[in-house]
Design brief:
Order of helices and strands: HHHHHEE
Number of helices: 5
Number of strands: 2
Helix content: 55-70%
Largest sheet: 2 strands, antiparallel
Oligomer: single chain
Length: 125
């Protein structure tokens, strides 16, 4: 029993640590190199008309694409467009309006804690 409690406490402490680290605003100047700041401005100016969600306009969202493509703006733009296309094809922006009652009967779950932005964490039973 003591081992289980210690493990649980360790997991919770790790989760708290990451929540605190990630809770710092990603627009903080310390999180981007000067090169990334310049690239973010250029990248945003080229793709802002295509962004479908409010969160897509934030640097913390856009930097992921630039970093994934080694700061190549053309490749990052193509990757972002593929993401937007996938979101449209799968109707991801409307997923919460779907009926999930049959799924929740088959796969019961509970909401457990939340992340640094207050989104719920799911624990399956």
């Amino acid at each position: 029993m003591h081992l289980v409690c210690s493990s649980t406490i360790l997991v919770i402490n790790i989760a708290i640590y990451f929540a605190l680290v990630l809770n710092s605003t990603c627009d903080d100047a310390k999180l981007y190199t000067s090169k990334e700041k310049i690239l973010l401005k250029k990248f945003y100016s080229e793709i802002k008309q295509d962004l479908t969600l409010e969160i897509m306009h934030e640097n913390k969202y856009l930097i992921r694409y630039l970093r994934a493509q080694n700061h190549d703006i053309e490749k990052a733009e193509a990757m972002l467009h593929r993401t937007i296309e996938w979101r449209n094809e799968t109707k991801m922006d409307n997923i919460l309006q779907e009926d999930w009652s049959s799924w929740t009967r088959k796969y019961p779950f509970t909401l457990h804690m939340s992340d640094y932005e207050g989104r719920p964490g799911v624990c399956s039973k």
